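Sat 14:20. Reprocessing the chain from the morning session after the first attempt stalled halfway. Input below, unchanged.
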Amino acid sequence: MDFWQYEKEAMSKGYAAVCGCDEAGAGPLAGPVYAAAVILPFGENIPGLDDSKKLTEKKRETLFPMIQDLALAWSIAWIEAKEIDETDILSARMRAMQLAMDGLERKPDFALIDGNRDKGQSAAITTPHRCLVKGDSLSASIAAASILAKVSRDRFMVKMAEQYPNYRFDQHKGYGTKLHYELLRTYGPSPIHRRTFLKNL
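Finished this time. Tokens:
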């Protein structure tokens, strides 16, 4: 499989600055949803680059600075739990991705977006784009974005573990594990919990 196939297709249509965009943290009960956008030099070989979910935490941490160093431009954005509750997670994901693309120093003229959705009730992707299901396994640019988003979010949740030690955010990163549900039942929600995600407590 050619990891640059979709970038190549976009460039053959005349797009010069093609970015990959992905988000991390749509499903957790706590914390923000993060997104990243990355423009890589076309054809750049980053050893071990893959969908962030297929990599160990150690490998993601190794790739994180490599991607930042090699990228022509990169940007990370996030939407807090409070805004997720006030809108909806799909809108928050779209807004985070668009914010990440808007934050790129080099304006992308085309984006490869992970997933099959490009709009929610209150936010949409406005950069010209193509949605790719399992894009983080198909496109080098999306894979790079998936790593930046995932590592950034995980680091944030480790910081939150220091602020709210009762919830052990460093262990589950806000996802709905058995331990997390037990701690929620014991202590109730923290200020960074998504209230709309806690209906089955």
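The CA atoms of residues 36 and 76 lie 4 Å apart.
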